Every structure is written in C-alpha cells, then in structure tokens.
Amino acid sequence: MKYETILYEVKDYVAKLTINLPDMRNPLTEQSAGELLSAIREADRDPEVRAIVITGAGKAFSAGGNLNEFKKNLEKTAPELYFEGRASTELFKAGAEVRTPLIASVNGPALGGGTGLVAMCHIAIASSEAKLGLTELKLGLVPFVIMPWVRRAVGERKFLEMMLTAQVFKAEEAKELNLIHQVVAPEHLEEETMKLAHQVASFSPLAVQLSLDAYFQSEQMDRMKSFDFLSDLRLVSFMSEDLKEGASAFLEKRPPQWKGK
Predict the structure, then answer these.
(1) Does 170 have pLDDT greater than 80?
(2) What is the mean predicted confidence (pLDDT) over 93-117?
(3) How would you class 121 by CB atoms within 10 Å of its CB: exposed for 0-12, middle for 13-18, buried for 19 or more?
(4) pLDDT in tens, 37-94
(5) 207: helix, coil or strand?
(6) What digits encode the pLDDT tens for the residues 196-225?
(7) How do strand 14-19 and strand 110-111 relate by DSSP bridges?
C-alpha cells in the first residue's frame, strides 16, 4: 500500500512506521491516523515483521489532533460526527488487537493524542527532549478516545490530575508516571530503539504472539475463566515447534531458528 503521510520500511524483522508531517508536528489527522492504522495492520500481517516501531519525522513525535479538522467538525451533522468518530477510534483499538509488539520511539513532543499513542504502544522509549501531556482542555476538548490507554498507564487519580490540569511533563517525569519505560539522550534514541526492537524480534514470534494474546484476552475476562483460557494457550505453546527448537538450541548452545509454528 502507498502512504502519503507515513513512511514505511522493514529491515531485519523490524517495521519502522514514521508519521511524516514534520512541518505540522506530525498531527493525527483523519488521513495520517487512517494510514498509520493501515500500516500497523500491514506490518502485523507480515511474517517477516516481529516488532513494529512507531516514531515521528523531524522534531516531534505527534502533536495530537489537528485543529483545522476540529474546526470543520463544527459544521458537520451528528451522524457524520458519530461515524467519523467511530472510525477514529480504530487506531487506538489496535494496541489491544495486533499480536506484533508495538514500540514507541518518542523523538520529541507527544501531546494529546500523541500521548495516547505512546500509552497504546506496548513499550515506549523516549528522547530526553520529549514532552508528554493531555493538553485537550486548553482547547475546550476532552481526551475521550485515548482515555483508556493513558488511565491504564498512570492510574486513576493521576489520570484525573493529568486531564484536569493539562500539565506537560518532561521525559523523566513521564517515565515516573509509567508513560515511558526508558529515557535516552537524543543522539542515542535511534540506536537504542533498534536495539530494543531487535531484542524483541529475536524471540519466537509464536511465543510473542501468544504472550500478547494471553495478556489482552485475559484482561477482559473474569479471573477464574482467565485461568482456563491461559491453560489452553499454554497447551498450544507446549506443543509448538518453536518451544522444541528453543529447548534444543539452549541445550546445544546455539542460536534458535524460529519457525513461528
């Protein structure tokens, strides 16, 4: 698929998706959000992809929503807004739907929806120059779509404070809030991101997929039912070729050759 607002490249089992609207600080427009979702799904379907990195071109990760589009929304009917709104939520559902690890490489400011995108990713690494925050209330908006991810990352009361104060946090502060897992110097971000992505990609793709499936499926279940579901997944894992290969490679002191089966 050809993308106009996203750069898409795959190398050594890692797909790198770059929001490519640097002059606009990489907003999540209707087009860029749609293309980013398509790129995530494309990478997730690709057997040659075992990790997906999301980043922004230029000096920003993503400034969130686009004000020009928000203004146009004031002239639309309720049905138009309803169906467009449902479509926009699909991007933020992806974090719980894909079975390829998503890694946010936060190269600069990630505000509003940008913070939501970081919180949606399974792992987040940031430049020390990055800034994150829910700034929607400053514009008379509410962070509706990204609320579940950010609340899950930082906890209930901290989320309320973030939302109601619209405070912007430096990278180290965002790490303390669990929005970011690792903070590195700007000049080392690319190197450290790829090191992390290649580490994830080095594992059995089947085991990684089962890990994400176990995590997100069991999260939605009654606790007692989740034990039965996880037991079923454990059976799949124990009967997989990758587990046999992993055990053999360990005993023979050689790198494993994964088949994803």
Answers:
(1) yes
(2) 97
(3) buried
(4) 999 999 999 999 999 999 999 999 999 877 666 666 677 787 777 776 666 789 999 9
(5) helix
(6) 999 999 999 999 999 999 999 998 888 899
(7) unpaired
Report how far apart, in Å, the C-alpha atoms of 156 and of each of 34, 120, 123, 169 are.
29, 16, 20, 17
Of 153, 109, 157, residue with least CA distance to 133: 109
Q: Rounded distance, CA 247 to CA 214, Å?
A: 21
- Asked if 241 contacts 249 with a C-beta cutoff of 8 angstroms, the reply is no
Q: Are 112 and 145 in contact (CB under 8 A)?
A: no
Instruction: Tell me the C-alpha distance between 118 and 132, whole Å.
Output: 9
Report how far residue 135's alpha carbon sits from residue 67's, in angstroms, rounded to the nearest whole number.
13
Tokens of 64: 């969130």
Active-site option among 35, 136, 172, 245: 136
Q: Which of 58, 66, 60 is nearest to 29 (CA)?
A: 66
**Would residue 136 show up in a list of annotated catalytic residues for this protein?**
yes
Structure tokens at 72: 């146009």
* Spatial distance between the Cα atoms of 38 and 182, rounded to a whole number of angstroms: 27
CA distance readout (Å), 240 to 229, 259, 261:
17, 10, 6
